[in-house]
Amino acid sequence: MKFAKPVLIAVALLAIAGALAYALIDKPDAPASRFTTLEGKSITLDELRGKVVLVNFWATSCPGCIKKMPDMVETYRQYKDRGFEVIAVAMSYDPPAYVANFVQTRQLPFPVVLDTDGAHARAFGKLQPKPEDIRLTPTTFVIDKNGRVILYKLGDFDFVKLQALLDKELS
Length: 171
Known about the structure:
By secondary structure, this protein is an alpha/beta fold. It has 5 helices and 7 strands. It has a 5-stranded mixed beta sheet with strand order 5-4-3-6-7, sandwiched between helices. Helix 2 (63-79) links the parallel strand 3 and strand 4 (84-90).
């Protein structure tokens, strides 16, 4: 028992050191991307500097993407007036007519783009732990106001944690 206190202190110090090291790690810059929405509007990430941007790679054939889209819409509506933007990037294999139908029937309020040639999947894929084209959906990146990637998530993610991150970044 007399060793328990020093061990707890050592564990706490290691946790603090790890958190500090993570905070000091240089976050990668988001790729210089130009998106074209379904309506033909051009958006660049440079134009969105000063906002927190969520870039979500998704597909109409992805059950997890479809299931979480209402949460994405609700989060967008909750934070858009505070400087939050969403760009939903439909995968190159997703038929454009399916994407357009999904956007229309679900009345998605944020920009939706088609990655017809896979250029966005290649550019953002370089930011993954194992750099390769994005093939799996959903794959999500959150970019801070300075254009740095502060969150990368492959697969389903927790919207409560996302909202906590947005509260911190948009305060």
